[in-house]
């Protein structure tokens, strides 16, 4: 079973620190002369900040992932306990973006890959080419390469948690016990 | 706040300054998370959760810690009513700036530096605070605390400044004056404990909220302002130029220094002593804008004579540094015997309140150090109630002093702040250890300044140029 990260809307203060930590955790600096603030700031988690609610939203690592199903080039795959985008395969078709029920997939400019050259629509000679930045999709990978998910680590309100199969099992068992007690306590009303 | 003083000399420039606050929170970007409200040492920020917060400019001491903690930014996949280009312009930032723009921000002034550098008749002088040389490298991918005084000087020369002087020189002068003042207060039963006056946020806080204790504040101007005054008097004399032609820029780790240089009484040279303050970050943005490859620069020296400094002047950039520099000189001035060891570990550290007692050749001095203005009130209460038994108090608003100032490179992840601040602090101490002269009163150019120009510390000329009457300034408000 896949693990996933979920935010608590009661605890979240909306500071976006998770977004910054996420962007930093996944960024490789293109040159040493840049500071970490200057690389594109792509976060795989998004804090939804509307009057009714403030909470980070990210990939749920679905077991039967609609994004993976919709991908025409098998660019979204199961990797250990999460669903992963294989950037090298991504053709930027955006099917997964539309398929995702959580809005957790983003199209971003890939800073590592060099730009690609295409013919311009108005081109009538081979010289008339345009340069396009490569766009690929990104989503939460549970920081699989770097230990504790960066968003969980940084959150000042402790509003994010990793739900792995063990944690989920523990939660479910606790709930069952609570319910068992309730059944005993309210036996007369229930039976 | 100082509107009255501007009455006679109101220009469009001053009006713009007065209407554009130095520290502000962008309503479009603020998510109302409240972290700035928590970090503010003077409770100057207010707002309900999840709604944009506001800065009370009357209470704000302009330390910029809110700017450092803020994580509400213009995420690239979101749209905002104001475009990025417009936002950069509103904030006085260069259009080439690449970094994300955060809600809590300070007023940028870099355009006025460019304008001055491009004006042919202008004689441009720049000074850099100690903490700048251990932080600016971070903006170019160098590690926390990378010590780069040579590259800093080279970059400023490459940008076209006519003189690259140093705040550290003036820090040495500050020790001459402040040390002499402390000794005088002790010997003549003056008001004790004496407070340091280098941190403009601290001075503003005392004026705003504890004006009954202003007598304790050293009458010394801050090193930035001493430097500014000396550049337009002594410096102008050396270069035989009309001080009216001088445009004096200070590069500071601090956002409150922008306020300090605009204080109306800071004009002892006959002109505004420091014309403009930019932060460490603004200088890094200018260096990038000019296409200078900072890490590749070869080291250059600061210009003589007003760029000559000692290790003591250099450690002003961290908490305990002013105290250590002062003790290195004051103990020797009082007894005629130098301290046996210059590494005064007992005043170093990162706790909010530190106290130490020094016994040297029969002289006993007690000192206290406060780092982070949120720790000050209990100390001030002790002083009011007569329980304070120390002679000298150093106060810095920011957590580890100027190395952690509001104008320093922003550490994006708060859990890396301590590592960054300690790295910068270690850089300052390493620089101190590597310098040949480590006591302010041994600075040869400071000696020459007194011989040729100022006379004695606390003398007539020094008093006129380098000191200010804090209680008088307050009455003007």
Give the overall pLDDT of chain A as a whole number: 88
Largest interface: A-B, 32 and 30 residues
Spatial order of the strands forming the largest sheet of chain B: 6-5-8-9
Distance between the termini of chain B: 7 Å
Which word captures the global form of chain A?
Answer: elongated
Radius of gyration of chain A: 21 Å
| Poorly predicted runs of chain A | none
Percent strand of chain A: 15-25%
Number of helices of chain A: 6
Number of helices of chain B: 19
Q: Using DSSP, what is the number of strands of chain A? A: 10
Q: H/E series of chain A, N to C?
A: EHEEHEEHEEEEHEHH
Using the alpha-carbon principal axes, give the shape of chain B: globular
Helix content of chain B: 25-40%
Rg for CA atoms of chain B: 21 Å
Give the CA-CA distance, first to last residue of chain A: 36 Å
Quaternary state of this entry equals heterodimer
Structural class of chain B: alpha/beta
Largest sheet of chain A: 2 strands, antiparallel
**Count of strand segments of chain B:** 13
Give the biggest beta sheet of chain B: 4 strands, parallel
Break the fold down into its secondary structure elements and pairings.
The complex is a heterodimer of chains A (191) and B (477).
Chain A: E1 4-7, H1 17-25, E2 46-50, E3 53-57, H2 66-70, E4 76-79, E5 82-85, H3 95-99, E6 106-109, E7 116-119, E8 129-132, E9 135-138, H4 150-154, E10 160-163, H5 165-185, H6 187-190
Antiparallel strand pairs in A: 1-10, 2-3, 4-5, 6-9, 7-8
Chain B: H1 3-6, H2 12-19, E1 23-25, H3 35-39, E2 45-46, E3 54-55, H4 65-69, H5 84-90, E4 104-106, H6 110-118, E5 123-128, H7 149-159, E6 163-164, H8 167-187, E7 194-195, H9 200-209, H10 223-238, E8 246-252, H11 256-262, E9 276-279, H12 280-289, H13 311-314, H14 321-335, E10 353-360, E11 363-371, H15 376-384, E12 392-396, E13 399-402, H16 417-434, H17 444-454, H18 460-466, H19 470-476
Parallel strand pairs in B: 5-6, 5-8, 7-12, 8-9, 11-12
Antiparallel strand pairs in B: 1-4, 2-3, 10-11
Helix pairs in contact in B: 8-10, 8-14
């Amino acid at each position: 079973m896949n693990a996933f990260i979920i935010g608590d809307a009661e605890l979240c203060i909306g500071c976006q620190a998770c977004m910054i930590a996420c962007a930093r955790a996944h960024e490789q600096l293109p040159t040493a002369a840049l500071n970490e603030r200057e690389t594109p700031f792509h976060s795989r988690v998004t804090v939804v900040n509307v009057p009714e609610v403030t909470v980070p939203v990210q990939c749920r690592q679905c077991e039967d992932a609609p994004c993976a199903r919709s991908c025409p080039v098998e660019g979204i795959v199961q990797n250990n306990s999460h669903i992963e985008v294989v950037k090298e395969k991504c053709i930027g078709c955006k099917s997964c973006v539309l398929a995702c029920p959580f809005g957790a997939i983003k199209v971003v400019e890939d800073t590592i890959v060099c730009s690609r050259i295409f013919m311009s629509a108005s081109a009538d000679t081979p010289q008339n080419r345009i340069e396009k930045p490569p766009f690929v999709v990104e989503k939460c990978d549970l920081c699989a390469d770097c230990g504790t998910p960066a968003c969980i680590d940084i959150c000042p309100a402790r509003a994010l948690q990793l739900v792995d199969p063990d944690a989920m099992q523990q939660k479910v068992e606790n709930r069952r016990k609570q319910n068992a007690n309730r059944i005993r306590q309210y036996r007369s009303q229930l039976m | 706040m100082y509107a009255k003083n501007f009455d006679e000399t109101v220009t469009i420039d001053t009006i713009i300054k007065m209407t554009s606050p130095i520290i502000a929170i962008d309503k479009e970007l603020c998510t109302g998370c409240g972290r700035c409200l928590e970090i503010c040492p003077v409770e100057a920020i207010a707002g309900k959760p999840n709604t944009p917060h506001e800065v009370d400019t009357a209470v704000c001491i302009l330390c910029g810690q809110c700017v450092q903690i803020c994580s509400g930014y213009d995420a690239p996949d979101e749209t905002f009513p104001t475009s990025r280009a417009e936002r950069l312009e509103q904030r006085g930032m260069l259009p080439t700036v690449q970094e994300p723009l955060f809600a809590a921000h300070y007023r940028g002034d870099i355009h006025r530096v460019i304008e001055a550098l491009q004006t042919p008749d202008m004689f441009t002088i720049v000074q850099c605070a100690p903490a700048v040389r251990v932080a600016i490298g971070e903006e170019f991918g160098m590690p926390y605390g990378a010590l780069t005084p040579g590259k800093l000087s080279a970059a400023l020369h490459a940008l076209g400044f006519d003189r690259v002087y140093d705040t550290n020189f003036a820090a040495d002068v500050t020790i001459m004056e402040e040390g002499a003042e402390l000794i005088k207060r002790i010997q003549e039963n003056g008001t004790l404990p004496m407070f340091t006056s280098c941190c403009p946020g601290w001075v503003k806080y005392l004026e705003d909220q504890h004006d009954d204790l202003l007598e304790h504040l050293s009458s010394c101007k801050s090193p930035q302002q001493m430097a500014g005054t000396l550049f337009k008097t002594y410096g102008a004399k050396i270069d035989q130029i009309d001080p009216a032609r001088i445009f004096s820029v200070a590069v500071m780790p601090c956002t409150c220094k922008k306020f300090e240089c605009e204080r109306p009484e800071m004009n002892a040279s006959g002109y505004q002593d420091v014309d403009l303050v930019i932060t460490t970050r603004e200088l890094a943005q200018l260096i990038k804008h000019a296409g200078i490859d900072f890490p590749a620069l070869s080291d250059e020296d600061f210009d003589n004579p007003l760029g000559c400094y000692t290790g003591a002047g250099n450690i002003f950039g961290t908490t305990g540094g002013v105290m250590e520099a002062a003790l290195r000189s004051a103990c020797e001035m009082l007894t005629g015997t130098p301290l046996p060891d210059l590494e005064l570990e007992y005043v170093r550290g990162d706790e909010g309140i530190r106290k130490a007692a020094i016994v040297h050749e029969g002289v006993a001095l007690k000192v206290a150090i406060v780092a982070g203005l949120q720790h000050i009130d209990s100390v001030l209460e002790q002083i009011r109630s007569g329980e304070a038994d120390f002679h000298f108090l150093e106060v810095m608003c920011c957590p580890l002093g100027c190395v952690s100032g509001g104008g320093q490179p922003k550490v994006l992840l708060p859990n890396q702040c301590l590592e960054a601040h300690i790295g910068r602090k270690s850089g300052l101490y390493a620089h101190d250890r590597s310098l040949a002269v480590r006591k302010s009163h041994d600075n040869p150019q400071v000696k020459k300044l007194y011989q040729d120009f100022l006379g004695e510390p606390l003398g007539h000329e020094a008093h006129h140029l380098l000191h200010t009457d804090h209680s008088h300034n307050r009455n003007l408000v």
